[in-house]
Amino acid sequence: MRIEAYTQVQQVYNTKKTSKSMKANAAGLRDAVQISSMGRDIQIAKQAVANTPDIREEVVAPLKASIQAGTYQVSSESFADKLLEQYKATLG
Questions:
Q1: pLDDT tens readout for residues 4-14
Q2: Chain centroid to CA 35: how far?
Q3: More confident residue, 23 or 91
């Protein structure tokens, strides 16, 4: 068995020249991120939705007033139709 051959192979794997050259090349590089115009539009839309209130008071206030006054009427036919639509949609 030749020990010199093992030593030569070990020297090939232990070279530090490649790591120095990689550090020199990596120092000049920078990461950059670019967001497309569609991505910006989506971000703006998400922010607008987040800033919008969950409850529309202009719609809810008249309903609350009529319920409190006892004048709010629910059509039983309309309620039954919507209930069946929801049931069919869950089966669907």
A1: 666 777 776 76
A2: 14
A3: 91
Secondary structure (DSSP) of 25-90: HHHT--------HHHHHHHHHHHHHHHS-SS-HHHHHHHHHHHHHT-----HHHHHHHHHHHHHHH
The gap from C-alpha 1 to its chain's centroid, in whole angstroms, comes to: 61
- Tens-place pLDDT, residues 11-43: 767 665 555 555 555 667 888 888 899 999 999
Exposed e or buried b for every residue in 3-34, given b needs 16+ CB within 10 A?
eeeeeeeeeeeeeeeeeeeeeeeeeeeeeeee
